[in-house]
Specification:
The protein has 235 residues and is mainly alpha-helical. The protein has helices at 2-26, 32-46, 48-63, 65-72, 77-90, 97-119, 152-168, 183-195, 200-222; strands at 139-140, 144-145.
Length: 235
């Protein structure tokens, strides 16, 4: 348990707490909303290489869908797995890149939740590596408290997520069922419900991250679009 506490508190929580406080004190205006926006963009830029790999892999996976479907119908499990791995390796598809980006953001959000849940309820100098002058104001432009809940930031984040899924989900094939694209509607509703229960700082962070993803997708598709060159069907 001591090892777990050391890893969570000293390796993850306290450094992130200090990053939030340092950014808050450094940015003009000492505004917590701007701090969250800056940190969300910082995280996405840091994860940009993995995002680019994941985006390229997703495009190749879509192009390879007919071949993958053919492989899934093979009765021999061992041969099916072997040919699938060979096909993915041949076209340089990294199926873990997108998962890495998502897990990193989820971990950041989980620790950020703890920071806003309890980190600002005491003297910040108790946890800071440096001297903190004055209390930490958790409001966004003085209008609402990011340590409290609201409904419109979760709603905006959910709408942005719906737009992102609508943009990135391939057009259903003829005869496709509603269950094939259910997540485009259900996932934003689920995210909205969860964010309603959490400090609105998490909704703001997620909103900025989603808007970054939308911009990344649009630029990648319409500005730097490179169609992958696919080989023949696997034998």
């Amino acid at each position: 348990m001591d090892i777990f506490n050391f890893f969570f508190y000293d390796v993850l929580y306290r450094p992130l707490y200090n990053l939030v406080v340092f950014t808050y004190q450094t940015l003009p205006g000492h505004d917590m909303g701007l701090t969250i926006i800056y940190l969300a963009l910082l995280v996405r830029v840091a994860l940009l290489p993995a995002s680019m790999v994941g985006s390229a892999s997703a495009r190749r996976m879509e192009e390879l869908r007919p071949q993958l479907e053919k492989l899934r119908r093979m009765p021999e499990v061992g041969r099916r797995r072997s040919l699938t791995r060979k096909l993915l390796k041949q076209h340089r598809i990294n199926i873990y890149a997108t998962a890495m980006v998502l897990l990193a953001q989820v971990a950041f959000l989980a620790i950020l939740f703890q920071v806003f849940q309890s980190g600002f309820h005491h003297d910040p100098n108790e946890l800071a590596y440096f001297t903190v002058h004055g209390p930490i104001d958790t409001t966004f432009f003085g209008m609402f408290d990011l340590a409290e809940r609201n409904w419109w930031l979760p709603l905006t984040a959910a709408v942005a997520l719906y737009v992102l899924l609508w943009l990135t989900t391939p057009e259903p094939e003829p005869g496709a069922k509603l269950s094939d694209v259910w997540y485009v509607i259900v996932l934003p509703l689920f995210v909205f419900g969860v964010l309603l229960l959490l400090p609105s700082a998490k909704a703001l962070f997620l909103l900025v991250s989603i808007l970054f993803s939308i911009g990344f997708f649009v630029v990648g598709k319409y500005v730097f679009r490179v169609e992958p060159s696919l080989g023949a069907d696997p034998e």
